[in-house]
Design goal:
heterodimer, A: 168 residues, mainly alpha, 76% helix, globular, B: 405 residues, Thrombin, subunit H, 22% strand, rod-shaped
Chain lengths: 168, 405
């Protein structure tokens, strides 16, 4: 009985893993750049949010994504609400592509993801530099977008394993 | 064509408004709330400020806890690297320590003099305390270079408080919460520090490059040629944002497109910071300081100086009063003496008169005696035709001359 309960809690925890990872990543803000490569960075929350919204994952609550954005803004020091808006826009884009797609194609999703993150990063750059008068390096945003796009395919394969494990 | 537009509208509406069974809010609501929060956070309302501070307190603490495993891994790696180079760095440090010890004493004196002079220039007295602060979050974001420290408004941290690594400048506080603060590092693109480049004494602005070095900006044209590598860069204090004379880094020259370019290599390695010092500065007007001098404890040189001057003034006033009393006494004495002198003078003159009268009488008496004795020899008579008439001056002279002979 106890083992069954433990198994149940583990499954529950496992099913909430994407949200948990999202919160850890925004609070920790890790970018895996231990080699100190110039401009290297990628946005892991973008990949995670896009993928799980695209898959309409039932334990991926939008309000939690919204709060994750607020946490990210606080940690990074961006104006409050900016990351929440970015994350919500990713959710909207992913929900839109999910609604109009009859036969999903990973490569199409991948390039659509590139388009969306370019758009969102441009919006972020414009808002920060025009309205909040932040001094920013455009190259950082371009490289970030590029690496996020590259890493998407790697993380997607990992997430697919996770979903497979959950369904099994 | 119309059906494809309908599909698009349906998909959009579905994406924005449709809530699945698990979702409590539609994405359109969340997006609107986000925009509302952005607008609110850009306006500086008191309620929003408190709310932000509360969120920051919770998030920074959570972030610290979540970052523990990564930080442990990082520190373990750093420790391994440090152990492998331990002996070499020990030898290097020993030599450096000896050199620094000799410089220390003269630096102390210079610092004291400098402090005193600065306080004389300013119209206020500044006293500063450095408090130790632990870095709880130091995420190396590619966009913003900042750290979070565990000291806030509770510890008198204010926006603009200067943050140091030992005596080197690290940055300044840009956001203050109750028990935490965000420090904008010098390497951030938004950081601008007015500096002096020594020994050329050139004024410039150092801005962060978004990397681990700073850039020299806003330098007067023509002065760039005077710059030399290895020059010391320290704060000039212009604008009163940063305290003057705080070391920042060393100027390094490099070639870019066959043109000499310069960058500032910071003394402090911002990626290795664990603890920093926050300088709490309190300013007091000099006039107030003098008024409250008696009640306050003397804890700075200008107070001590004023106290010494006041004591000196009191002593001078006291001795001046004594001198005045003494002076009055002496004046009285002089008057008395003058009076005495005038009396004596009168007495002398009366005595002189008496003496002269006596001398005159004595002369007369002598003449009469000689006249009795030699009068007949000088008197003109029938027998003595060469004599003089009695009573004439020649007769008198003749009587006296006869007496001498």
């Amino acid at each position: 009985m106890a083992s069954l309960r433990a198994k149940g809690s583990f499954k529950k925890l496992y099913s909430w893993l994407p949200i948990l990872i999202l919160y850890i990543s925004v609070l920790n803000e890790f970018d895996l750049n231990y080699l100190n490569l110039k401009y290297f960075s990628f946005n892991f929350p973008f990949i995670l949010i896009f993928f799980f919204t695209l898959k309409d994952f039932k334990h991926f609550d939008y309000i939690l994504v919204f709060f994750a954005g607020l946490f990210n803004d606080t940690v990074v020091g961006l104006p409050l609400g900016l990351s929440s808006l970015s994350y919500t826009l990713i959710c909207i884009s992913a929900a839109y592509i999910r609604n109009i797609t009859i036969r999903p194609n990973p490569v199409k999703d991948w390039f659509y993801f590139l388009f969306i993150i370019s758009l969102i990063n441009s919006l972020n750059y414009s808002l920060l530099s025009l309205f909040f008068e932040f001094e920013l390096i455009l190259m950082n945003f371009i490289v970030n977008t590029f690496f996020t796009f590259l890493f998407y395919i790697i993380f997607v394969s990992m997430f697919k394993y996770y979903l497979k494990g959950l369904n099994d | 064509m119309a059906s494809s537009r309908d599909d698009f509208i349906i998909a959009i509406r579905s994406a924005f408004l449709k809530k699945s069974t698990q979702q409590k809010f539609s994405l359109l609501t969340l997006a609107s709330i986000s925009v509302f929060i952005i607008v609110l956070s850009s306006l500086d309302f008191k309620a929003v400020r408190y709310l932000k501070a509360a969120i920051s307190e919770i998030v920074y603490r959570s972030s610290f806890v979540v970052s523990i495993p990564e930080n442990m891994a990082k520190s373990a790696f750093t420790e391994v690297v440090e152990y492998t180079t331990f002996f070499n760095s020990f030898k290097k440090n020993s030599v450096e320590l000896e050199r620094l010890k000799s410089d220390y004493v003269s630096n102390e004196i210079i610092q004291y003099e400098n402090k005193e002079l600065k306080e004389l220039i300013n119209d206020y007295v500044s006293s500063s305390d450095k408090i130790l602060a632990k870095i709880i979050v130091d995420h190396d974001s590619p966009f913003l270079k900042s750290i979070i420290i565990n000291k806030g408004s509770k510890d008198n941290i204010k926006i603009g408080t200067n943050i140091y690594d030992q005596s080197y400048l690290v940055g300044r506080v840009i956001e203050v919460n109750y028990k935490t603060s965000r420090v904008l590092l010098l390497s951030d693109l938004n950081s601008n520090v007015p500096v002096t480049i020594a020994p050329q004494n050139i004024q410039a602005i150092v801005t962060g490059a978004g990397s681990d070095y700073g850039q020299i900006k806003y330098i007067k044209s023509g002065l760039t040629e005077d710059l030399v590598g290895e020059s010391i860069v320290y704060t000039s204090g212009t604008g009163a944002i940063f305290k003057s004379g705080v070391p920042i880094g060393i100027l390094q020259s490099f070639k870019e497109n066959s043109v000499n370019e310069y960058k500032v290599e910071f003394y402090s390695d911002f990626s290795q910071l664990k603890y920093v010092f926050a300088e709490i500065v309190t300013k007091k007007e000099i006039s107030q300081t003098i008024e409250n001098n008696d009640s306050n404890e003397i804890n700075n040189p200008i107070d001590a100086k004023i106290k010494i001057l006041e004591d000196e003034l009191k002593i001078i006033e006291d001795s001046n009063q004594k001198f005045q009393v003494e002076n009055d006494n002496l004046k009285n004495e002089i008057n008395n003496l003058n009076f005495k002198i005038s009396n004596l003078n009168n007495e002398i003159s009366s005595k002189e008169r008496t003496i002269s009268q006596f001398n005159l009488d004595n002369k007369e008496l002598e003449f009469l005696r000689l006249n009795l004795e030699y009068g007949h020899k000088c008197r003109k008579s029938f027998l003595n035709t060469k004599g003089y008439n009695v009573g004439s001056e020649n007769y008198k002279t003749c009587v006296l001359n006869r007496g001498k002979n």
